[in-house]
Amino acid sequence: MWDETGQDYAMFVKELGNLRTRADGAWSREEAFDVHMAIGRALYEHQLFKEVLVSFKRACELQPVDVRPHLRAGNCLYALGRHSEAKGEFTLALEAAENGGNQWGYLLPQIHVNLGIALEAEGMVINACEHYREAAILCPTHFRALKLLGSALFGVGGYKAAVKALEEAIFLKADYADAHCDMASALHAIGDDEKAVQVFQQALDLKPGHVDALYNMGGLYMEMSRYQRASEMYTRVLAVSPNHWRAEPNKAVALLGAGETEEALKITNRVELHDAVSHLKQLQRKKIKTNGGVNGEGAFNIVETSKFKRVADRTSLRQELSIALEIRAFQRVTRLTRCDVELLKKEMANDFPVSYSGSGAPEKSIRKAALEIILRKLLDFLKPDQGAVKAINEKIMMFLDESGSCRVDLGMFFAVLAPICGGSPEKRKQVAYDALLWRPASEGSSKIRKADALHYIKSLRAIYIPTRGLVKLESGDRTRHGNYACSVCRYPIIGSPFKEMKSHFSLCNQCYSEGKVRPSFKLEGYRFKEYASEAEAMKR
């Protein structure tokens, strides 16, 4: 590493400048280009990226249609963390290669891979998938492209396709530990936990110190309630990476689950232990569905829907509240409440070409990669690594892309998205209506076609399952009700409290929606009243 303020570095830069001056004085542009490329390659080996960039940029000026300096400049910019500029250079390299005929065909797969990596760094994972897939098509033996494709598909929720791509990568390179690790995670995502454990173990056999495999395997063992094994995995993570900030509290969770409370106290402080206990309780609540807790602690019974009665019509139906809570959770993950619905209307003012579906009906369809760009613009406050686009892809885009063509009807997409964006209910309904009129089949008309309306309602039911309780939930789900706690989960009640009128116990909206009651409150039927305000809650 150079001290850039030192005399040696200043002398080096001066001599480097002299070399570049001599290169520019070469008898031909071709010779000058070759020298600048040679200087750049030599500097790159020593990771002097700022100086490297000067050489490759100069080479780009000398030979604008040559792919190599753009590709190398992109690599350099990526190494400097300037991902957007790297994407620009890789795009220029791709354009030059595609316009250069067969001359640059051998570099096309690598350009697609590098461009995909730069896009992923900006959070454009669906776009990255397109380039990894293209690289794999151009070079079917490109195992790294297949691995990156599988990892990216996993990142946007395409778990089955991810498993397939990662299987291909492992077939081509059997000792690819990273591919084994990501494949195990994808297998876990589709519910094949036993096979996931085997594949994680294969990754560790290939690379015993693989931190991601160790950490993810620890998480898998936690979900399987194999706490001792989970603790062993996290111990191995800390042995390889002592500063792994997530492994230590997770190890405390595992030790607590295994009943080794004293050991958990030794490795973590009070705040971390509190977080660990909270996480463990969440895992236990997922696991225990009947009265199986110690002395009834943490236990509950699941009561069938017909036994939950309402005292008044304004008390939410249990099943409706359950749906509303799921929608609200989706809004939180996607941050769509921070996206004003008027922004969708502005997007509809843009000119999108009309295409034709398999049935011959006209529609303004768009590739999912292009739709991801629109989503990133709508949610411009998101960081690259947040999972909003993944959640939208899993829940909405995959449903609307029934044919698997990677294209989505944009009008229907906006209409489905509008109800859960920010803005008043009236505005959201209006934008959904406008989006359906904006579709080519209804454009110019003041009425939505009956077939489109039915298709829209069917889509809403399939994606969200409509509920009349969502708007009420939106306005009250942050309200705290004194010091009252739910009788099942013991957490303070935030949002709508539900009081059982005979036994006088209260449930939070989550436990009420799931039909949970403590075994000590065993009744033939339950009658609940919902309190919409803190004042009403205090009266109970």
Automatic annotation (TrEMBL):
InterPro entries attached to this UniProt entry: TPR-like_helical_dom_sf (IPR011990), TPR_rpt (IPR019734)
Keyword Cytoplasm: no
Repeat region (TPR), residues: 177-210, 211-244
PROSITE patterns referenced in this protein's UniProt entry, alphabetically: TPR, TPR_REGION
One protein family per Pfam: TPR_19
Entry keyword set: TPR repeat
SMART domains from the UniProt entry: TPR
Protein name, UniProt field: Uncharacterized protein
UniProt superkingdom: Eukaryota
GO cellular component, one term: plasma membrane
Source organism per UniProt: Dillenia turbinata
Gene3D superfamilies, per database record: Tetratricopeptide repeat domain
